[in-house]
Amino acid sequence: MIDLNDFSFFAAVVQHGGFTAASRATGVDKARLSRHVAALEERLGVRLLQRSTRSVTLTEAGQSFYAGSLGVIENARTAWDSVMELKKEPSGTIRMACPVTMAQNYIAPILPGYMAAYPKVSVMLEATDRLLHPVEERLDVILCAEADVPDSTSLVAREMGRVRRVLVTGRSFLEQWPLPSRPEDLAHLPTIARLSDMHDEHARWDMVGHGDDALRVHVAPRLVTGDMRVQLEAARSGIGIALLPETLVARGMAEGNLVRVLPGWFTPEYRLYLVYPTPRGMLPSVRSFIDYLLVHMADRLIQGPGAKGG
Question: What are the backbone angles phi and psi of residue 274, rounded to the nearest 5°?
């Protein structure tokens, strides 16, 4: 095992012309310096210094090793200084991942504000529906649904809030079809579903009412897709009734091009978590990013307390 102290102590002895002078200059005990150099020579199998009672001189091998040691010491110092610089203020690169729809709906609207506030920070955002593990993928943070939180004691899972899906369609749909008056009516109307909703030829939607009534509805969708943006545009165009996250459809309903269907019914809430390695040694850039997300995602989600793990 290479000990960087060996390089540093050896170079100090050479630069100061002996063990005594090097000890005074570095504050390292003379005997310790001697032990490190002797151990270094033993591991290398060559003599690096010719010692006398008055001075030390470099052997040919010592001259070669000294020249290389200076580069090693300088690289180590540069690496150290670069980390110390990162710790002064948020800077460097943050690596984040989350599902595509979360990137579009939750991260995209607030990310520019963070980057404007912290100009020395760069962000690498991977929008993917593949399940990821922060440590294994060398990620600083991931945003995911509760079911996808990795099981690890080395991670912190911070609850960001909760999301529920609601029924919506476009205004042109109302010109062709009557609005349902109860969830069971959805079985007889054109609908738009996710791939994960499908079971055989039908989709299953689990709904709850304001009175905590629970109901499973079976529908035969006209369109099935895992892309929520495609579902949203199809609903807006009147293709059918879609069951989409409330945060995704809020703007369309406010602008009037989406209509809420069965407003007393929605899906059970599911939690969103921000997952990251335990905070010990966390860089200021990552900490600032997590704090920023906690504040600015709050307005977009139903709030739920707590953190788990780590």
Answer: -100, 120
Q: How many C-beta neighbours within 10 Å does residue 248 have?
A: 23
pLDDT in tens, 34-77: 888 888 888 888 888 887 767 788 888 888 888 787 777 777 77
What is the rounded (10 degree) CA torsion for 175, 176, 178, 184? -140
Q: 223 has which bridge partners?
A: 192
For residues 187 and 217, the answer to whether their CB atoms sit within 8 Å is yes
The single residue listed with the structure tokens 């020579």 is 41
Tokens at 138, concatenated: 């060398």
Instruction: State which amino acid sits at residue 98.
Output: C
Alpha-carbon distance of 135 to 96, in angstroms, equals 12
Task: Please write the tens of the pLDDT for every residue from 236-270.
Answer: 999 999 999 888 898 899 999 999 999 999 998 88
Residue 8 has pLDDT above 70, yes or no: yes
Specify whether the CB–CB gap between 240 and 189 falls below 8 A. Answer: yes
Q: What are 44's two structure tokens? A: 């290398």
pLDDT recorded at residue 174: 93
Q: What is the pLDDT of residue 2?
A: 63
The token pair at 90 is 């948020």
Q: Which backbone phi and psi does 178 adopt, to 5 degrees?
A: -80, 145
Q: Give pTM, 2 decimals.
A: 0.60
- Phi, psi of 150, rounded to the nearest 5 degrees: -60, 145
Q: First vs last Cα of the chain: how many Å apart?
A: 32
Length of the chain in terms of residues written: 310
